[in-house]
């Protein structure tokens, strides 16, 4: 997916769409293993979870073209495309997960929740703090990233840390309900 970011917006969207479809397939497989009256709601939540990011990314690239005409609209979309924010989101999630694991392994003592007992408060907090620091430093030091204010990089990293952790907890809960160790075979 990172390669698609550097080619153009359409390559990124195509790769993102393929990955999201793979995620949806794994999610549906997991949900069907859960014996629940709320199966339809779980499936609907998965569909929204998959479709919403795709629509958001498409809107980010095309909303300005509503004010342009003809070929100028397409040119505006392709010339304003920047991979910085999607890369920052991917890196934020990687940094948060990695730092949470390292900090939790080194100093973690307090379990975060019964859903995922190997996660610790110390690891979660350390991962989030280090994620914000690293992304803020990258936003301030990389010349191409300086067009976006550091406070926006901090906001991106904070949102990724919070929602990444909540996503991990949701996946752990679904795996426990389905009584499976790994959530899928298609995507690790």
Structural commentary:
The chain has two domains: 1-81, no CATH class; 83-181, no CATH class. The longest helix is centred in the C-terminal third of the chain and has 29 residues, at 150-178. The protein has helices at residues 2-7, 9-32, 39-62, 71-79, 84-107, 121-141, 150-178. The model is unreliable at 64-79 (pLDDT under 50). The chain has 188 residues and is mainly alpha-helical. It is 73% helix and 0% strand. The two termini are 15 Å apart. Helix 2 (9-32) packs antiparallel against helix 3.
How are the secondary structure elements laid out?
Layout (H helix, E strand, L loop, with lengths): L1 H6 L1 H24 L6 H24 L8 H9 L4 H24 L13 H21 L8 H29 L10
The computed structural class is mainly alpha
Number of domains: 2
Give the amount of beta strand, in percent: under 5%
What is the alpha-carbon Rg in Å? 19 Å
Brief digest:
With 188 residues, the chain is mostly helical. It has helices spanning 2-7, 9-32, 39-62, 71-79, 84-107, 121-141, 150-178.
Could you list some keywords that capture this structure?
188 residues, mainly alpha, 2 domains, 7 helices
